[in-house]
C-alpha cells in the first residue's frame, strides 16, 4: 500500500467518494489500511464533513438540502466505522 493513498487515489479523493456514495466504508474495506493510512483517512473524512457543513445552500431548495444531508450522513457513518475499527486494532486517533 502506498502511504499517501489507496488504490492510486489520494485520501481526499477517497473521502469525496465516500461522501458521494461511490465507496462504502466497512471493516473489510478498512482491513487493507495500516495505522498511518487509517489516521489519515479519519482526518480527511472529518475535514470533508466540515467542508460539507460549510457549503452555502438556499434553504428553499429541498433537493440540495437533501443531497447535503445524505453526504453528511455517509461521512458520519464512515467516521463511526473508522473509529470503531481503530479501537478494535488499538490505534489511537
Can you characterise this structure?
The chain has helices spanning 11-20, 27-30, 35-53, 62-88, and strands spanning 5-6, 9-10. By secondary structure, it is mainly alpha-helical. It has one domain (5-88). Strands 1-2 form a two-stranded antiparallel sheet. The protein is elongated and about 45 Å long. The model has no long low-confidence stretch (mean pLDDT 91).
Helix content: 55-70%
Order of helices and strands: EEHHHH
Placed side by side, the strands forming the largest sheet appear as 1-2
Gross morphology is elongated
- Please report the number of helical segments: 4
List low-confidence stretches. Answer: none
Based on DSSP secondary structure assignment, what is the total number of beta strands? 2
Integer-rounded radius of gyration: 14 Å
Number of domains: 1
Q: Give a quick account of the main beta sheet: strands, pairing sense, barrel closure.
A: 2 strands, antiparallel
What amount of the residues lies in strands?
A: under 5%
End-to-end Cα distance, whole Å, is 20 Å
Structural class: mainly alpha
Mean pLDDT: 91
Features:
93 residues; mainly alpha; two-stranded antiparallel sheet; 65% helix; elongated
Task: Summarize the structure in short.
The chain is mainly α and 93 residues long.
Task: Itemize the secondary structure elements and their pairings.
Blueprint: E1 5-6, E2 9-10, H1 11-20, H2 27-30, H3 35-53, H4 62-88
Antiparallel strand pairs: 1-2
Amino acid at each position: 500500500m502506498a502511504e499517501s493513498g489507496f488504490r492510486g487515489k489520494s485520501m481526499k479523493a477517497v473521502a469525496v467518494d465516500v461522501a458521494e456514495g461511490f465507496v462504502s466504508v466497512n471493516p473489510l474495506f478498512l482491513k487493507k489500511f495500516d495505522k498511518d493510512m487509517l489516521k489519515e483517512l479519519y482526518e480527511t473524512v472529518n475535514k470533508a464533513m466540515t467542508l460539507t457543513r460549510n457549503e452555502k445552500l438556499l434553504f428553499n431548495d429541498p433537493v440540495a438540502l437533501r443531497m447535503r444531508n445524505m453526504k453528511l450522513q455517509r461521512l458520519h457513518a464512515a467516521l463511526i466505522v473508522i473509529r470503531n475499527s481503530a479501537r478494535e486494532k488499538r490505534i489511537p486517533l
